[in-house]
Write a structure and sequence with these properties.
single chain; 133 residues; alpha/beta; five-stranded parallel β-sheet; 6 helices; 5 strands; 43% helix; 20% strand
């Protein structure tokens, strides 16, 4: 399974997701794409198999992934404080991959009906979605 994890800013969300996948689904290949080098570095340190940075890495990674995981902002142009370009959002949205979007209520993007969960709970739910019992 080819998993693409996309994150921005400091990569804290992606870091936790990559670590959980690395620990619990060892046969998955995880590619970490950060919108900046700090995000990419954090996810690589957490155990991602591959890492890349920037718009073109998101576009190429979205074409190759079976699953894309990231904050909901990865499908909203100009979100995550402007780090998600329109081309990135389009690439993720048009991908044939299954998308697992994390409902992070930041940057004026609020998902109604979601409850505030800590990242550990979100990571556990993602693992269930990736590898159903």
């Amino acid at each position: 399974m080819q998993i693409l994890v996309i994150d921005a800013q400091g990569g804290g969300i992606g870091k936790q997701i990559v670590a959980a996948i690395h620990k619990n689904i060892p046969n998955a290949t995880v590619t970490a794409v950060g919108t900046n080098t700090a995000a990419t570095t954090a996810m690589l340190k957490a155990g991602a198999d591959h890492g890349a940075t920037g718009e073109n890495a998101v576009i190429v990674g979205a074409r190759k992934a079976d699953v894309i995981i990231g904050p909901i902002g990865i499908v909203i142009a100009d979100s995550l404080f402007g780090e998600i370009t329109p081309a990135m959002a389009i690439a993720v949205g048009k991908s044939d991959a299954k998308r697992i979007l994390i409902p992070v209520n930041h940057c004026d993007n609020i998902v109604a009906g979601t409850r505030e969960l800590n990242m550990k709970s979100i990571a556990e739910e993602i693992l269930t979605l990736l590898h159903p019992a």
